[in-house]
């Protein structure tokens, strides 16, 4: 899953809620819990005493948990796939490499 997939999931979830007339926050929250699987379900169950009572809180908490993860994962894949082209100047290539690592909050 990528950041785009995450946003698509949330958009499609909103469309699905409209389709079934799940308009209230309480309905959306209950429905969202039924759609969680795997790691996302374990994450939610692990929240413990943190009480999420409305869909807006759930969406915000979900995004804060997973959005950075997917952005960083996408960036890591991009870094791993970087190759210096024959016409690239070494200093420019190294600068791009450092710039991408800086975005990951990794200092080299």
What topology does this entry show?
Layout: H1 3-19, H2 25-35, H3 38-45, H4 55-80, H5 90-103
Helix pairs in contact: 4-5
Describe the structure.
This protein has 108 residues and is an all-alpha fold. The protein is 70% helix and 0% strand. It has one domain. The mean pLDDT is 77.
Quick overview of this protein structure:
This protein has 108 residues and is mainly alpha-helical. It has helices spanning 3-19, 25-35, 38-45, 55-80, 90-103. Helix 4 runs antiparallel to helix 5 (90-103).
Q: Overall 3D geometry?
A: elongated
Number of domains: 1
Strand content: under 5%
Termini separation: 27 Å
Low-confidence blocks of residues: none
Whole-number average pLDDT?
77
User: What structural class results from the helix and strand content?
Assistant: mainly alpha
Salient structural properties:
single chain, 108 residues, mainly alpha, 5 helices, 70% helix
């Amino acid at each position: 899953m990528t950041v785009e997939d995450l946003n698509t999931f949330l958009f499609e979830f909103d469309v699905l809620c409209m389709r079934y007339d799940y308009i209230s926050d309480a309905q959306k929250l209950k429905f969202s819990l039924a759609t969680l699987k795997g790691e996302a379900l374990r994450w939610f169950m692990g929240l413990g005493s943190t009480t999420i009572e409305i869909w807006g809180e759930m969406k915000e908490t979900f995004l804060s948990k997973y959005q950075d993860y997917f952005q960083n994962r996408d960036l890591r894949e991009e870094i791993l796939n970087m190759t210096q082209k024959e016409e690239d100047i070494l200093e420019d290539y190294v600068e791009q490499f450092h710039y991408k690592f800086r975005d990951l909050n990794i200092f080299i």
